[in-house]
Amino acid sequence: MPEIAWREALNQALSEEMERDVNVFLMGEEVARYNGAYKVSQGLLDKFGSARVVDAPISELGFAGLGVGAAMVGLRPVIEMMTWNFAILAMDQIVNNAAKLRHMSGGQLRCPIVFRGPNGAGGRLSSQHSQSLEANYAHFPGLKILAPSTPADAKGLLKAAIRDDNPTIFLEAELLYGVKGEVPAGEHVLPIGKADLKRQGKDATVITWSRMYYFAEQAAQLLEQEGIHVDLLDLRTLKPLDEEAILTSVRRTNRVVVVEEGWSFCGLGAQIADLLQQKAFDDLDAPVERVTGLDVNRSYAAVLEKATEVSAERIVAAVKKVMYQEEGT
Amino acid sequence: MATEVQLPALSPTMTEGKIVKWLKKEGDSVSSGEAIAEVETDKSNLEVEAFDDGVLLKILVQEGETGAVGAPIAVIGAKGEKVEASKPAPKPAAPKPAAVQPEERAQRPGGPAQVVPIRRAEERAPAPAPASEDGRLRASPLAKRMAREEGLDLAGVQGSGPSGRIVKRDVEAAMGQVGAAALAPAPRPGSAPPPAPVFGRREPEVLPISGMRKIIAQRMAEVKPGVPHFYVTVDIDMEEAVKVREQAKAAEVKISINDLIVKAAAMALRRQPKVNVSLQGDRLLQFHTADVGIAVAIEDGLITPVIRDADLKSLGAIAAEARELAERARRKALRPEEYSGGSITVSNLGMFGVDSFIAVINPPQASIVAVGAVAERAVVRDGKVVVRKTMSTTFSGDHRVVDGALGAQYLQELKALLEQPTRLLF
User: A328: left (phi > 0), else alpha (psi -120 to 50), else beta?
Assistant: First the structure.
């Protein structure tokens, strides 16, 4: 299987879906002539022309709304946000229109639209450009939230998102675009709502998604050297949440660490901890431990940014804590 | 200052005790924890010990005399101290269960000198789990669930988590001990019985009493006051059971027919749990253990030591334990907890050649099984008269909580287990 980078995997998904369905089009800032701020749309303008690969002005609310309108009348827009930090401007269109059109129209309207772009830290981009915003979108009914970790999962889920008849938030990690992995060529569509057990252990379950998967994998390798084996569950889809996969793993391991890049307060890990105390209370041998970005704004200074980020060492400490091997994280 | 030594309650039912022997005489020094007298209770002879250091100044109840529980039997004080004129004996205190006595006494430091029953070394409970600072038992939800499913009492488990929280590994460690005890090989004949497993035993639960059951209990108590008995009798073919005993003998394991009956009685309780109950006051208890009493005739009466968890023990283990208990019963050396509790009793008069008899229930148990001799009898099998080793068994049930059909079903189980004793293996 060929090894390609994340950005190439996304490019494949877009290109294949645009070939497959003439209703699919891509719009966003610098997606056409500049081939994308992160080069995800490399070559697409040449291939599909300016009617289907559209450069938008710097007006997130405007082109998000244009996409919602296009979806209402039968097209399948893919709206690229240069980063999810900028999409905050477009939240009114995303949550007040895209997420609610089906409901407000009594089921007469569908909104098959994908909002995608980089999420989370980009490396010394300071507080306004380093946010992980999945918890915000996960709060609203009517949106599906995808946050894959590997290039193969990214391709398979972006294709699934484009084919889905509901508005989808597709979160890419800015620092992952260059990460390479084996990606199946051609038709590779993954089911939305299915987590992937990327590593099987017995001592604890580490639940994570997106870029944090790589920290968790690194932590799992460190733990393995000490004879501790963890289930590493990559959620891939944050909403709808794959409760079955979570509960199945936790019933086996009895201990849970949730790792997320974003802040702890009202983060997804809190939701997962709630799920566990509701549905797996009697299976828990320790309180659910969370490893998150520290509850402060990201710094520009490298050393300060690093100090507030998730690390493999913090995950290792959290796993040991739920195993009652060490105090504190 | 001189203090009186009061006669302690040494068994749950003791109201008075006879001084069999003074182990110290007046003028002897005594130290805290030292045995000073041997007392005969209603069940066995036990020693009492001094609670304070001093000199035994005066014996108030002489050897052969009887004192009420709580009454002064001696005075301990400083050497040369004058003993005041004997005051009238205080009104006997209500007997307290012996099981809680030592702790109660121990919790009154600085009080008057007391005597407490000698705690034999093997009777000492394992050190209690260090409770958390506020005395609460802390356990993870999983640990609690595991304990519930396995019938483990977490009070005896030491927690290794923060603030003494009991977690999975602690339960597993505790269960490992139980498992090892349950799987321990049967002792060789004559060797000491294995200690009864203390982990893994579930406490009885209180069952709701239905309206119908209340009326049945009332009516039965009107007709037959006390414990209203009913009786069900069945003949059991003992050919196979006798063979088992012979096979065991060939393997140098000495087991009796009664040991087979004890095990079968316990397993039948497991299969008919509705018989495994006890009416205590207005509470109906459901036992989750199968403890079987064995009636042992002793000089001047009888006593019923209990084989705990007889359903879980091998026949060899039951045999060794029964022999040892019976031997100590005859010496009146049983401890109260060894003849308390139990779900059912097996009473066997077979050794006297008795064909069948009816036994009286030993409350608060709800049933008793009376077995006669295994004797060759003419029975009809497939239309022919044949000679078979047969044993008559009569079940007595407490009709307030057990009905005839239930008693019959229990006997069916017992009969099936004894007629095909390989079933005792599963």
Answer: left
